[in-house]
Specification:
Layout: H1 3-6, H2 9-12, E1 64-77, E2 85-95, E3 105-107, H3 111-118, E4 141-146, E5 156-162, H4 173-181, E6 185-190, E7 197-199, E8 205-207, H5 220-246, H6 255-258, E9 259-269, H7 271-282, E10 286-292, E11 297-299, E12 306-308, H8 312-315, E13 321-325, H9 338-346, E14 351-356, H10 367-376, H11 382-389, H12 394-414, E15 431-434
Parallel strand pairs: 1-4, 5-6, 5-9, 9-10, 10-13, 13-14
Antiparallel strand pairs: 1-2, 2-6, 3-4, 7-8, 11-12, 14-15
Helix pairs in contact: 4-12, 5-7, 10-11
InterPro entries: AB_hydrolase_fold (IPR029058)
Keywords: Hydrolase, Lipid degradation, Lipid metabolism, Signal
Protein name: Alpha/beta hydrolase family protein
Length: 435
């Protein structure tokens, strides 16, 4: 993120500043995750082309399907737009019945969202430093087939995914696709008017209101608490709607029957990470949660005092959670962060804390796989890339994120324990296990 982005987003997420092959049988050795290289950014006649990038392939045994769903909460006024009802877009990712060919692969973003993300969206809260007009986000493809029939095989655990402050729901696709390829149904949520942009089926593009709120008079703590409350309400509403969708005819063939709403987990990055923890605190339907570098404390001037962003830090949790920190200045283990430390001390459920050496706040997002490719094509500077993702090897970072998240979810939603989270692992020397 840019300094401006972290001025609001990282406050929320990684502490206070302002803003695989896993899935193989237990005991199997994970193969390296290769982060694919894109074109070199120059056409045959020497003219500079728009940069593009490729997501790493999912590592599980299943092909992947995806479908987008528009939801309206008839009982809630939108906190960001009081003259409107709350509307959301979600995507559901799931094991598909047949393989996906190149021509069938779903777009990474809707065309209008891709155009905005490359322009005004990139200049907003979650600015990752790529030059507007230099990246063809509409050309980026996922590994999923749109509206594919679901793979038979009975009910599957459901995982919710919440992105960081200012980020769209697509910005965790590499992790989400991988979980779906391992047999999970994953529901990604766009938090409307906070996400950089949300494209609705009627053609409306809801751009983030956050950039217009930035300024010296902004009460960042109040903003973050409002974001937290709105996101938790969004999450609980989505869970309610999944109950209805399960029995409707609006989903692709077999998908409703695949939803096991008795086994629900949640994963989130940054603001999405603290959303996952607080939503689990507030809603017993969520059995386990992963927080990817989302801090729970807005610091004071001394870096320690300040205010907690939510009640979960002081109340603790009685169900399993995993904290995954980075080497950003405002992150690290629970020992170093007041919010995480309070959560740890007040919790009675199983818990673990790991930190990825060499990483930065963006390392747990698609920034880790996509931005290095854009840097090779000149669409982002080496210094900006280092600020966003650190100096950890991209393939290793993607592999570690996928492996640790899947290990946690397998253990608590499927009862399959590969013991990766019992302590330090020789397979992942770059992951520091915090005791």
């Amino acid at each position: 993120m840019s300094r401006r982005g972290r001025a609001v987003a990282a406050v929320v997420l990684a502490a206070a500043t302002a803003m695989v092959t896993l899935g193989t049988a237990p005991g199997a050795t994970a193969a390296p995750v290769v982060v694919a290289a894109a074109a070199d950014g120059v056409t045959a006649d020497g003219v500079s082309a728009r940069a593009t990038a490729a997501l790493p392939r999912p590592t599980g045994p299943y092909p992947v399907g995806t479908t987008a769903v528009h939801l309206t909460d008839q009982n809630r006024v939108d906190p960001w737009k009081p003259d409107r009802q709350r509307e959301l877009m979600i995507s559901i990712w799931y094991p598909a019945a047949r393989p996906v060919t190149g021509a069938d692969r779903a777009a990474y973003m809707a065309p209008a969202a891709a155009e905005h993300f490359d322009g005004d969206g990139n200049a907003g809260v979650m600015n990752y430093g790529f030059a507007p007009g230099r990246t063809d986000w509409a050309a980026v493809r996922t590994h999923a087939r749109v509206d594919a029939s679901a793979s038979p095989g009975g009910r599957r655990p459901v995982v919710l995914y919440s992105p960081g402050l200012g980020d769209p729901r697509t910005w965790g696709t590499a992790l989400v696709e991988d979980l779906a390829s391992r047999g999970y149904v994953v529901v990604t949520v766009d938090h409307t008017w906070e996400a950089s942009e949300v494209a609705f089926p009627n053609g409306e593009l809801a751009a983030s209101v956050l950039p217009g709120m930035l300024g010296p008079d902004l009460d960042v703590g109040a903003l973050l608490r409002k974001s937290m409350a709105t996101r938790v309400d969004d999450t609980r509403f989505v869970l309610d709607e999944l109950e209805h969708l399960k029995h409707s005819r609006g989903l692709p063939t077999g998908l409703g029957a695949a939803l096991d709403l008795d086994r629900i987990g949640m994963v989130g990055h940054s603001a999405g990470g603290f959303t996952a923890l607080q939503a689990m605190h507030d809603d017993r339907r969520i059995a386990a949660a992963v927080d990817l570098d989302g801090q729970l404390h807005f610091p004071g001037r001394d870096g320690r005092t300040g205010t907690y962003l939510s009640g979960v830090a002081q109340d603790g949790l009685d169900r399993p959670f995993l904290l995954m920190g980075t080497r950003s200045d405002d992150s690290g283990s629970y020992h170093a962060q007041p919010g995480w430390d309070a959560l740890w001390q007040h919790s009675t459920g199983w818990r673990a804390d790991v930190t990825l050496d060499g990483s930065r706040h963006g390392s747990y997002t698609d920034a880790e796989s996509l931005l290095p490719q854009l840097a090779r094509q000149g669409a982002i500077t080496p210094d900006q890339l280092r600020a966003d993702t650190g100096d950890v090897d991209p393939g290793r970072a993607v592999l570690a994120t996928r492996t640790y998240v899947a290990s946690f979810l397998d253990r608590w939603l499927r009862g399959h324990d590969d013991h990766l989270l019992d302590g330090p692992s020789a397979r992942f020397p770059e992951v520091v296990y915090e005791r």
